[in-house]
User: Fold these one by one.
Assistant:
Number 1:
Amino acid sequence: MSIRRIASILAIVSLVTGCAARTGPVTPGLARVTLAPAGYQELPGWSGDDVAAVVPAFVKSCDRLAPQPDSAPLDPAADSQFGRLKDWRPLCELAAKLPPGDDAAARQFFEANFVPALVASKGASHGLFTGYWEVELGGSLQRGGAYQTPVYRKPADLGGGPYLDRAAIEDGALDGKRLELVWLESPDDLFVLQTQGSGRIRLADGRTMRLVYAANNNRPLVDVYQLMLDEGAIPKAQFSEEAVRAWMRDNPGKAKELRRKNPLYVFFRELQGDGPVGYQGAVLTPGRSLAVDHRYIPLGAPLWLAAHDKYRPVAVNRLVVAQDIGDGITGPLRGDLYWGSGRGAAGRGANFYADGQYWVLLPKIVATLK
């Protein structure tokens, strides 16, 4: 989970020139996607993918379905054309028994049990695909030295209405409430953490602390990156994540002024163990977990993604699993690929802005009923 709409804007602008508000139940009158069955030979790059790499991600999603009844839909937010859990459970059991890393067995499993169906809406099948990642930052459990910026946990008095805005919180409105989880080196570190919605904090004693999105203050989101462009803080030809961070470091006063124009503020919680965790509840898998609008594409479904970067000679043809959602990841032809943790993942995620298609893999019993 995250508030990645501003991260998507960063990806868009940087390439053109060189957990948050969430989707809810099916909206009356919402456009229904169309699904056109296809053969595996029609999937661009199918024969070249390491299909076995997606099996652990698919099994993780299957595990999230276990407590639900057979009659439940794959995802209650999506419509019923993707089948019921009774249609998916036998395939989940087969997937769990596949030999790890055996690409031939994994490929045979999907080809024998699923039918790819091209996702389209209103006659179009091409959409926008961007990337996101888990940031890595330095921090301290105690305030001191360079560590002066707090990361707050969810306040006990946070309800469903508007809460303290960013400016009030930055000015100390939560001081003394013992809500500090960790202290970061700068406000722009916190800004990036809040943008991506999760992060690993490297502590001075060598330990690592994982933070994930807990809640926000129920205030509207204002796109700080767009404000930076509108005000000419960074020339469009030079706009990138690295340029944003450098500008914020070099212009702390102006950066503070811009940040405070965004009243939305994100609170975090510590996650013990593996992560980050997507909206479905499964631990995300680098390069294999996709955030979608689950009003159209059900969480837990395997998808064949075929995307070509709009501005670089980069193609992504691989099997992924819908496991997350994100603010700004809206519409039937929109996806956000999770790239992993750290600087390498940040570079790949921030620079991924692609045109593409995806095919949902339906259990054969579901496909034959369509």
Number 2:
Amino acid sequence: MSVGGENLEKLGIKSIFNLADITYLGFTNVLLNIFTIRKKINFTVNKIIEFKPDILFSVDSPDFTLRVAKKVKLLNSSIKTIHYVAPQVWIWRKGRVKKLKNFIDHLLLLFNFEKEYFDKENVNSTFVGHPLLDNVDNKGTDLNHLIGSDKKIVSIFPGSRLSEIRVLMPVLLKFLSLSQNKSNNYLYVFHTNNEFKKVVNNLLLDQNFKSCEVISNEKIKKELLSKSTFAIAKSGTVSLEIANANVPSLIIYKLNFINYFIIKLLVNVKYANIFNIISKNEIIPELLQSQCNENKIYEVFNSFMSNPELGEKQLLNCNKILNSMKINSSSAKKVADILSYDIKKFN
């Protein structure tokens, strides 16, 4: 039994409802849908209690999953709760750490620096590495039909949610127009998923852009990224994958004024990107809110294209941080080993 999306469905695991039904971006959207979310939480808790699993394994989406775990633990304390992807207490709401130990038995961490936050409060945790840093063999994919020998690839990540795509694509289209008017040396590859591929493609077709591709196949996306000269990405963990592919990048993001104002009041870090947060320095340029416009994006992009040493310096600094994040085995294997060990304890 699960609550998940298309990836779990591909594995033949049925979901009681799609995770997208309770995934809302921004504080205002959450508030507007609070009763729907609460109803889904209670429905999920009831199903778990009815199913009586040995382990409740929750992944990310803390505002949903941790609320479910807390209620389940209160109703049946014998169900072991393991949560993968710790809430970002190092960014905001540090007080959550003290509460977690009351209902989470084991926390699986993506970043090694997180452990100190949970060790202080005696929350059982294990650093398992980040799945985006796992080495995947993409050799053997024929990309000749996509890559022209005379064009450099620029990978663009407009977001994984429709709300993000709606906000960022208009800006990216203006950047594209500006960039293509100045040079035809680049192939712009938009990385998206199957759900939003048509949306992104139609936006490009509407303006008759040339030298553009929209890719949703994960294997092809990874190989195209590895062959890219530069990347422009929505703020998020995709920056890890980009840096791991040894590609310099620029981070962009926009929220409506109310959400941005609330976040500025709550967060206790200066930067949005994980590399910048860890280093306490802007290793990767960030263009947020009013700075996220076509002129600023082109200015940074052109600067990196005109000065290759900027990209080299960025990657050198990123690689120092990446090396501290990697583990000997794959992240997936380490998580699986922990789950298997805990399951055996029940048998």
